[in-house]
Task: inverse folding
């Protein structure tokens, strides 16, 4: 009789929090937040004899020259400028279509040439790479919207390739030199 | 009247229920389990990576090998100085070790994915380009051409 009326005693749950805390602290210790994003780049194969050929084929107006010195100062097409202006200047250069005579003939043959000093900081280098990538992304997005009504990310692979072929991103990096000396 | 007052004084403030505490902690736990990855090697160099906006996600982890460049962490400062240095897996390295590192990483992976390994460069933002350029030259020599400059999402800091 007595047994029947008794209920099963509840399991005490007050230690669940402690167990969870223990696990939490374990995970905090042994894991790191993943950094799995970055700016992808393709390095050119080591130069043999093809280097000279490329240089001689290009007309000066189709090369957008960026130089960075060891104090992280920029010289774009011979003029001092700031990283913040780079995106605008690059877009002007690529989308010139032969209008201004010191800028590119057409986007197909436009090349951005980046030359940095050994003393340039990596931060400045990444900022420049990022601004160049942003300039091309904006140009491609504009084209994609005009042609397919969507931004690049929404397009199919074939459509993306078509746009990329129209505005190929050509960034050439010169062999480094010591411009402006050690710092 | 008197009785009422007596009752109030005798009553204790109710304790705050901690019944939901495990739930909260479990929530945090699950967040960390999902958002983080197991640390595979101890950081020997400080790599405070720059921020950028034009980022692409890396492929599967097995397809990526990482080269860290930065000043040694505090514990190794006395031994290695404060100049930027390479960390290849769990060892310090120099620029000359890159080619061997690349070959080792290739051999550790299945033959079919070897041509597609991408080389992640995790570089401190205060490092000068000299050492970075040297490493890039070595990667070219080892024919490891697919590289990624690791960066955090954000606006680049420049004027």
Result:
């Amino acid at each position: 009789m007595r047994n029947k009326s008794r209920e099963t005693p509840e399991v005490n749950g007050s230690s669940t929090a402690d167990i969870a805390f223990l696990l939490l602290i374990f995970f905090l210790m042994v894991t790191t937040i993943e950094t799995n994003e970055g700016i992808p780049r393709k390095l050119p194969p080591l130069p043999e004899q093809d280097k000279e050929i490329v240089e001689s084929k290009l007309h000066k107006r189709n090369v957008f020259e960026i130089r960075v010195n060891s104090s992280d100062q920029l010289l774009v097409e011979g003029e001092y400028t700031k990283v913040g202006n780079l995106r605008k200047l690059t877009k002007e250069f690529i989308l010139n279509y032969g209008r201004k005579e010191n800028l590119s003939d057409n986007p197909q043959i436009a090349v951005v040439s980046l030359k940095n000093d050994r003393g340039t900081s990596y931060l400045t280098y990444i900022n420049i790479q990022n601004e160049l990538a942003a300039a091309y992304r904006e140009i491609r997005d504009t084209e994609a919207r005009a042609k397919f009504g969507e931004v690049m990310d929404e397009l199919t692979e074939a459509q993306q390739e078509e746009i990329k072929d129209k505005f190929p991103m050509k960034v050439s990096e010169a062999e480094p030199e010591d411009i402006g000396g050690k710092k | 009247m008197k009785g009422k007052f007596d009752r109030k004084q005798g009553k204790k403030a109710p304790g705050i229920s901690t019944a939901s505490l495990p739930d909260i902690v479990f929530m945090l736990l699950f967040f960390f389990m999902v958002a983080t990855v197991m640390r595979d090697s101890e950081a020997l160099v400080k790599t405070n990576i720059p921020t950028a906006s034009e980022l692409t996600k890396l492929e599967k982890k097995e397809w990526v090998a990482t080269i860290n460049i930065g000043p040694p962490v505090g514990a190794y400062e006395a031994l290695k100085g404060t100049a930027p240095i390479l960390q290849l897996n769990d060892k310090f390295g120099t620029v000359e070790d890159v080619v061997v590192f690349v070959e080792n990483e290739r051999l550790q992976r299945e033959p079919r994915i070897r041509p597609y390994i991408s080389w992640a460069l995790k570089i401190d933002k205060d490092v000068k380009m000299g050492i970075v350029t040297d490493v890039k030259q070595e990667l070219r020599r080892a024919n490891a051409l697919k590289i990624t400059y690791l960066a955090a999402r954000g606006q680049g800091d420049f004027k």
In short: The two ends of chain B are 74 Å apart (CA to CA). The beta strands of chain B are 36-38, 51-52, 56-57, 64-70, 85-88, 91-93, 118-123, 146-150, 152-153. Helices of chain B lie at 2-10, 21-35, 77-80, 98-108, 129-141.
